[in-house]
């Protein structure tokens, strides 16, 4: 059997007869051989590696989208590298530099805000980039995600329309979470139109967001007794607030309305009160991002496009219905 036939089977097994392919695979299994794809790149082959860089893997929304992207690109023969920078733009720069050293076919990054040195590095690399999760702003032609300022505005508008008078914005690590800050800007804009001001509540950083959120709600309601509507930057925070409110006999949504963000799988099924939340069309973000990344590997002239996937407020038991 010629070396060229073995090489062809490793690269494109569908082009080798079934009988010959079985013989080659048996030899590969017996030898424990692992194909060196980096070496293949040096001989003119394409990179089979893609990369995604996100702020967190702990957030179920991010992990769900990454899993969907991985499933799609792996079916086309690509390996997906994943990096998480914990909302640190300095760490993001280090990770992207390390990833670019392996010449990925495409890289997807979260959000529109990055260090100038990171942007320069990406532009100079020539590697196609897809911006995920945010479409309002950014340096890249390829963008898939949501308008976060509009989300914040719509969340405040929804709570006001359901009869809430004094609104609070519950978040954590506010200084680090860029998209949470953008949503807060929209939240404040809606309130300013009504002559009102938002209360910003930045939950102390904690490994146990449930405990920290519950403790913060109690302290907030003691100091700000008029608060009757809360928009949270994640369903995890919102769920913790529901738990605390119920334990303390606070009527939901009679005395306090709680709106989450992300529409986690559990939110619609919480009992005795289900959680209203903002659905971000995560599956659409994953599908459109993966499709765009794959198209970039096939067509060098394709620069991508801006895809606003939209969002939907899901009214459930934790908020009243709009008037």
TrEMBL record:
The keyword Isomerase does not apply. Residues 1-44 form the HTH lacI-type domain. It comes from the Bacteria. It comes from Leminorella grimontii. The keyword Transcription applies. The lineage of its organism: Bacteria, Pseudomonadati, Pseudomonadota, Gammaproteobacteria, Enterobacterales. PANTHER family: LACI-RELATED TRANSCRIPTIONAL REPRESSOR (PTHR30146), TRANSCRIPTIONAL REGULATOR (PTHR30146:SF33). CDD domains: HTH_LacI (cd01392), PBP1_GntR (cd01575). Coiled coil: none annotated. This is Transcriptional regulator.
């Amino acid at each position: 059997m010629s070396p060229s036939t073995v090489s062809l089977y490793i690269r494109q097994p569908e082009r080798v007869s079934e009988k010959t392919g079985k013989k080659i695979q048996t030899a590969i299994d017996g030898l424990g051989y692992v194909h060196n794809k980096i070496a293949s790149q040096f001989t003119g082959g394409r990179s089979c590696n893609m990369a995604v860089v996100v702020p967190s893997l702990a957030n179920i929304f991010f992990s769900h989208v990454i899993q969907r992207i991985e499933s799609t690109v792996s079916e086309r023969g690509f390996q997906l590298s994943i990096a998480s920078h914990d909302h640190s733009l300095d760490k993001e720069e280090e990770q992207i530099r390390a990833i670019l050293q392996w010449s990925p076919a495409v890289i997807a990054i979260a959000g529109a805000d990055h260090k100038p040195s990171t942007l320069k590095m990406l532009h100079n690399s020539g590697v196609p980039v897809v911006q995920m999760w945010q479409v309002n702003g950014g340096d890249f032609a390829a963008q898939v995600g949501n308008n976060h300022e509009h989300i914040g505005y719509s969340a405040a508008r929804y709570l006001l329309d359901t009869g809430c008078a004094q609104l609070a914005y519950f978040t954590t690590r506010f200084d680090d979470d860029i998209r949470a800050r953008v949503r807060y800007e929209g939240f404040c804009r809606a309130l300013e139109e009504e002559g009102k001001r938002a209360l910003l509540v930045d939950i102390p950083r904690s490994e146990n967001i449930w405990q920290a959120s519950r403790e913060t709600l109690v302290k907030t309601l003691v100091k700000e007794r008029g608060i009757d509507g809360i928009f949270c930057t994640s369903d995890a925070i919102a769920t913790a607030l529901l738990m605390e409110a119920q334990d303390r006999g606070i009527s939901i949504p009679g005395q306090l309305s709680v709106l989450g963000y992300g529409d986690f799988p559990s939110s619609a099924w919480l009992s005795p009160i289900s959680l209203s939340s903002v659905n971000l069309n995560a599956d659409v973000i994953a599908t459109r991002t993966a499709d765009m990344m794959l198209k970039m590997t096939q067509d060098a002239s394709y620069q991508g496009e801006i895809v606003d996937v939209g969002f939907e407020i899901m009214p459930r038991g934790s908020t009243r219905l709009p008037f």
